[in-house]
Amino acid sequence: MDNRVTTMNKDFELTNGVRIPSVGFGTWQTPDGETAIEAVQCAIRAGYRHIDTAAVYGNEQGVGEGIARSGIAREEIFVTSKVWNTERGYDTTLRAFHRTLADLCLDYLDLYLIHWPATEHRFADWRQINADTWRAMETLYNEGKIRAIGVSNFLPHHLEALLDRATVKPMVNQIEFHPGFMQRECTDFCRANGILVEAWSPLGTGRMLTNETLKGIAARYGKSVARLCIRWALQHGVLPLPKSVTPERIRENLDVFGFEISDTDMQTIDRMAYCGGSGLDPDEIDF
Ligand code: A2P
Q1: Per-residue pLDDT for 5 more than 80?
Q2: Could you identify the atom of ligand 1 that is nearest to the CA of residue 240?
């Protein structure tokens, strides 16, 4: 499995052979209702075939409606959702999954993720909680209701504990990833274990767009900082999930296959000091 992106390839491959479009459309902070419906329809018209949502975003109904109204066949669109932290455990995860399917008006998901790991600072039995949640994911995967399963915001020590107990290995880990916060230890661990890394907030939730280093590099390519960040993730073999509700930005963010960032510029971006992070540390969050 070689998931380096050239100017041509537009899919990554998961360990079970499922292909996943290499730029996904993010919907975190996209309000439900007409905004979500229109954003998703606009994205699909622009050529996105990968939509990322989560139960906690509160917009699964709008996202599902946007997919339905797009007129594109269901099998051509890769749809991801996530089980929220209050639903951890075996039975609760199964129920949460079926609620998500009903809200999206779908009969299967392409990818389902554990949104955040249970961690030591809140749960003495965090390993067992994650293992129970994972067992539900495996059940749904083995029943054919999900084409691939994974996690989100898992750091290497959370993944190690999960891998010790898992029958099916997670195929994806969706983490915060952008210039100034590339979480190298985590991405290296995932790569070594065949886990595809997806980037949430690939633009640092917009905070990267005014960064002077990035502005200077982007200007030399005649591209926007947004496109530079998305392309940089792809060249690292990381799948970016840019979010926008603005039609021209939605289109712009997919236009990242016609240029290549040089090795020198990749290294300059890689070496940027920490900046623009959300500050959401999986081992410290209180939700
Ligand atoms: P909006 O949704 O109002 O268009 P991230 O993907 O890192 O979470 O960043 C999302 C934020 O960046 C949103 O505020 C979004 O604004 C903004 N954004 C997304 N794409 C672009 C772009 N191409 N140019 C400028 N801002 C963008």
Answers
A1: no
A2: 6
Ligand 1: distance of its center to the CA of 208 in Å?
10
Closest protein CA for atom 17 of ligand 1: 206
To the nearest whole percent, how much of the chain has pLDDT over 70? 97
Task: Reply yes or no on whether the pLDDT at 1 is more than 60.
Answer: no
Note the pTM of the prediction, 2 decimals.
0.97
Phi-psi region of 109 (alpha: psi -120 to 50; beta: other; left: phi over 0): beta
Cα separation, 154 vs 283, whole angstroms:
9
Protein residue whose Cα sits closest to atom 16 of ligand 1:
244
Element (H, E) at 60: helix 60-70
**22 φ/ψ angles, rounded to the nearest 5 degrees:** -80, -5
Ligand 1 pocket, mutate which of 51, 174, 175, 203 (most atoms under 8 A from CB): 203
Atom of ligand 1 nearest to the CA of 227: 23
Superfamily of domain 11-206+237-259: NADP-dependent oxidoreductase domain (3.20.20.100)
Long-range contacts of residues 251-257, Cβ cutoff 8 Å, at least 24 apart = 251/46, 252/224, 252/226, 252/227, 253/23, 253/226, 253/227, 254/23, 254/46, 254/47, 254/48, 255/227, 256/23, 256/227, 256/230, 256/231, 257/7, 257/8, 257/10
